[in-house]
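Before going further, learn to read the protein records used in this course. The integers have meaning only within a learned vocabulary of local backbone shapes. The record below shows the convention in full.
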Amino acid sequence: MTSEITRLKRIGWGVRAVFALGIAASLAGNVLHATDNAISQAISAWSPLALLLAVELISRIPARRGALSAVRLGATAVLAGIAAWVSYWHMVAVATKYGEAGSSAYLLPFSVDGLIVVASISLVEVGARIRTLTDASVNAPAAGASAMTDPAETVTVVHADPAPVVDEAAPTTVRKASAKRVTPRPVSAEKVAKVAARMPDAPVSQIAEKAGVSVSTARRHLAALRVTDASPTGPVAAETPALVAA
């Protein structure tokens, strides 16, 4: 884009040179045909100079689309018409005075005015193209920076850990904690323990009778109670007389 703008600027300077050449030819014809005094020469030179300034303003200063732009272009067209009309007759007189005869004297001014018209239009077009490319090159980085730094447009991307994929078809294996195996206490042991708790001083035979078990079974359960029971009291103290009694 920058290279295109540079190329168009070079073309613009070339078009200005062509336009200035046409204005210079028209200006020379007007001055040569004017009366030999400064005022007459200034008056005759004014219309080409006015056209030159108008075209430069249009080519360098952008205008909004609408009525004002139309008015500006219309005024420039009027200036171009006035300059062409005045310069035409001045150049016809100069061409006739300096050796051009017949139709040549009347056609020669058209070459000058036509060159001015083409150069002025080309200059306006090149200036408009340069402004368009310049605006695009200025707005493009600004739009990119705004998109990068505007908090309202900033999107925060959070990379979450993917959820584990569970295969529903695969059987689910649940590992249970190994429980300590506890051997349940026999019913006879519960009966012996209850009777011994109610009759701590009773002999083994009496405890066996109350519990409904044999003496050997009662003795075995009472021995187990003596090992596991933390209390010093209980049927342990009555063990000795029960053995004697037995």
Notes: Helices lie at 2-33, 38-60, 67-97, 104-149, 187-198, 204-211, 215-228, 239-245. The radius of gyration is 61 Å. The chain has two domains: 2-148, 187-245. Residues 50 and 201 are 143 Å apart (CA to CA).
